[in-house]
Structures are given as structure tokens and as C-alpha cells.
Amino acid sequence: MPDKAVFLDRDKTIILPNGDNYIYRIGDFYIPDSYITALKKLFDNEYKLFVVTNQGRVAKGYMTEEDVTELHEYLNDIYKDHGFQIEEFAYCPHNPMGHVSPYNVVCRCRKPKQGMFYDLIDRYDIDVTKSWMVGDTERDIVPGNLCGLKTILLRTGYYIGPENADYIEDDLASAANRILITKN
Ligand SMILES: [Zn+2]
Prior knowledge:
- The protein is an alpha/beta fold.
- Helix content is 31%, strand content 18%.
- The chain has a six-stranded parallel β-sheet with strand order 5-4-1-6-7-8, with helices on both faces. It has a two-stranded antiparallel ribbon with strand order 2-3.
- Helix 1 (33-44) packs parallel to helix 5.
């Protein structure tokens, strides 16, 4: 039987930056306790959890893929201490505006393209009609909608504009509650 899943943007969705800065590495972010509780509740309700994140600053030379994967392993170490885990962290290191080869290319994974989503949906046999995308920008919502996921836009981000998300919530904690009270 296909699994249900929650696809999660990373920066300003499951972790918040210290100050106004970008998140490059461990030490650049914090995690509210309520976010840990939210993810644990989703996991306990048999949602597979996936992170789907653009990390195009690899292509711009601000950080390496090793930095990205180190951060993801660090997150899962924290989550595992609380009895759950992210099934897989999908990230796009590309940006055609970057200068670091081989990352400075047009790719099929950089959101709002759906490449990372299709790959996970296919490999994990995910039932999109029972699954969700949660993120803080339009480029999270657009691919979520195109893949047939229900979508939640968070007010934690900078994005203000025409809303095409199914729901708008304050943060990850209220998004998790929304998912759990909504009949599939
Ligand atoms: Zn890419």
C-alpha cells in the first residue's frame, strides 16, 4: 500500500535562522521546541517525512555539499533523540547564476521544478492524495500543487502575495495540527 508523506521545505520551515542571516552550517539556526513536537506528531501518525530544499548557494561557493549533508545528519541526530527521523533529505545544489562547476547549471531539481518531489514520490511509493507540502515561499507551493499534494504556506517567510496554497498557517506547529485535523 502506498505511504503518505509530508514534504517539508528546510530553511524557515523546520529550522529558523539566527537573526536575518542565511543558513549555511550548523550554528546558523535554531529549532523551537514546538517544531520538534510537530514533526514527532506527524511521524507518530505514520507520515513519512521528507525535506526538499534548494541549496543553490553551493553553486555560488558559500558552502559545500559536505556542509549541507553535515547539517542534515546533525538534524537527524537531534530528531532521533526524540524518537523520529527525516526519511530523506533531498537538496538541489544547483544555480545557473553560480560560478562553481559542476553546480552552475540549469537542472531539473531546483524548486519550483518538481524533480526532487517526483523522485521521492516514485522511490518511496507515496500516495500524493494523502500527502502534503509545507513551505514558506511560492516556490514550495507551486511544485506541491503540480504534484497533487495538499499545500500549506507558512507565515514564517518573506513571501507575501497571491496565495495559491490550500492553507496558510503561522508556523510548522500549526501546520502539523492542520494536517492532523484534515480528513484525507
Ligand atoms: Zn538542481
